[in-house]
Structure formats: C-alpha cells, structure tokens
Task: structure prediction
Amino acid sequence: MRKSLVAGNWKMHGSVQSVERLCAGIVSGAGSLGDVDVLVCPPSVFIPSALQLMAGSAVAVGGQTVSEQAQGAYTGEIAADMLKGIGCQYVIVGHSERRALYAETNSVVADKFAAAEAVGLTPILCVGETLEQRDQGETLKVVGEQLQAVIHLVGVDKVAAAVVAYEPVWAIGTGVTATPEQAQEVHAAIRQQLTEAGNGTRILYGGSVKSSNAAEIFAQPDIDGALVGGASLDADEFLKICQQA
Ligand code: PEP
Result:
C-alpha cells in the first residue's frame, strides 16, 4: 500500500511574514490529517525558517531544485548535501519551469537526480509534455524519454525508490487540469516503465490541483498524491487537498 504524499511547491513566492503565516497555518491543521505525508518546498532562503516553524510537526521541508555539482565555484547554486545538512528530506528535480526557463535537459535533470539521491535526499522527479506534444500524440513518448534518461544514469531501482510527479506543462498554473483519465493513463505508463520496482513508487499528479478537483484525481488507482503550486500558498486550501489524499 502506497502512502499518499501532497507536496507544495511555493515557487518564487512569499516574504518573511507570509512564510511565517503559511507555516503556522499548515502546522495548525497538519495534526488532524489522516495517513498522508505532507511536504512544503519554499524558496531556498526561507527553508531554514520553514524547518524551524515546522519542527515537531509531521510536515517535511524540501528544496525546489539542486545543483548537479557536489561543491565548488558555481555561483548561486545550492548543493544537495547543503539541503540535506540543514534538514531537508526531499528536492524537486526537473520541474518544467526549470526545464523551459533554465535550459535543464533530460541529461542535466538526471545528474541532479543522482546528486540528490547520493546524499540521501528523496528526489521528486517531474516529467510532463507540452500541449503541442500532447496534440501530436507524443505524450507517452516524451514522458518515457524524460524518465528513461534518469533510469539510464542511476538504474530503475533508484528511480522507483524516489517520487515521480507527472505534470503536464499545459496544466501548470493555467487552471486547466488533466482529466482523471488522462492523468491515470500516463501514471500507469510511468509505473509500467519502472517495472516491478514501481509497484511501490509514489507517482504524484501536478497541474492546477485544487480542493475542488483533488478528490477525483486521487481516486485514480495510480495517482498517489499531488504536487501543488498555486493552491499550496493558502494554508486552508492546501490542507483541504491533503485531507482528500
Ligand atoms: C507546479 O508548479 O508544480 C504546479 C503544479 O503548479 P500549479 O498547481 O499552480 O498548477
């Protein structure tokens, strides 16, 4: 039985004050959630305060990206063992915004995955197709290649031990959600690609998840939670999504 995970990706939002309010709001409701893992991924400068504010609660804290390098002259980058060292448990790798805006190729994403995994962080590997790719019938091919690049580098067992997030690019921040059937089709293909080891892999859906659409998404057999962007910036809304997982 896979335990659901709901992860909030705060992207580049927030201030000292709003992060305090958001953490306090999530902590106040987290105790009464059922059997679900909850994670927040704040902007990196707010990770230490989020860790402090979440301390003693069941809410985990993670990073939004990580360097593929272990250490050195890489101005502005953050190494995996730095995230691990301050108490992060997870890190998102390969988010479509990183792929599109910061030119992260499948090979770079695989290197980042490997760097995170090597220090004991659990990578959340994001995969997903653009609308154009979906319209051309390439969804499973594109997602399959994104996944395969990481499997090729680290082996299927390490990918299966991580978390995979299927995030159709056209559904991120647009208010348009994949139908539960569209999402399930891709989740099932991902699980199949992970072979038998994938039976225990948590595969999250991401793309305009809200409390009003979470239940039907979570009802799909291969969907084990969500990676939530916009709706994770409101504690009540985020907690409602967690409750449904
Ligand atoms: C995301 O950024 O990973 C995401 C899914 O965003 P949103 O929920 O806002 O679509």
Notes: The radius of gyration is 17 Å. The chain has a mean pLDDT of 97.
